[in-house]
Amino acid sequence: MRSNPEAPCAGGSPPCAGGLPETYLVFRNRCHDGVMRALVVEDEPVIAAAVAAELAADGLGVDVAHDGADGLWRARELAYDVIVLDIMLPTMSGYQVCAALRAEGNHVPILMLTAKDGDFDEAEAFETGADDYLRKPFSNMVLVARVRSLLRRADRSPLQSETLEVGDLVLDLRKRTCAVAGESVELTQREFGVLESLAGRPGQVWGRQELLDRVWGPDFGGDANIIEVYIGYLRRKIDKPFGRRSLRTVRGVGYALSMPEPADGPTGATDG
Length: 272
Description:
The protein is an alpha/beta fold. It is built from 9 helices and 12 strands.
């Protein structure tokens, strides 16, 4: 027996995601205002139920999808605070689901799950836009800790400003958009994450490892020089086209975002 996918929420809210086996409904706090919501996309019923139960026990409302197409539909139709996404799925892979959401401008935090253990698979997960990656088998404690970490990073409480401004640079934290001198600048998810970190502490230097932990996560095992590469990407997008200099490299220390100066003006640190 299956639940009615069109059953309305209390109070006339939009329909909840339905069509789930009734056994999963006990894990959900359906349409409860103020409760953070998670979507679990996992084709193995036992794992899906276990993950849903753990997240529900941690206070989240949980929906479950068992294939990639259904997971993508739910992520498009409903606002989730975090998605736990398996890679090997029927109809669409987790990579495809993640890439589709990112291409549409949906930056919901995504934790990818996989039974694979190769570095290539982990790299591809991050390249498609995943925020974190967890190999099976995993402990429930670690799973919940990873989800909590993603929720903290993405927290946008009403008390927080929804924009960051440094001179004529404006970052919209909710829409994840960037503008310089009123002109829209397209950034990738990682580029936005680096710039958001720097703009949150204008003028202050961020160490390379500090940025890696913040944007790539503490378990990132790649080359730390990736930060320098992304700083270069950002310079070519927010500085050079506008004849200005705002991103500074402090040799041996890290990087900072300061009030912009003309590209040929004086500076106390290199921009190369």
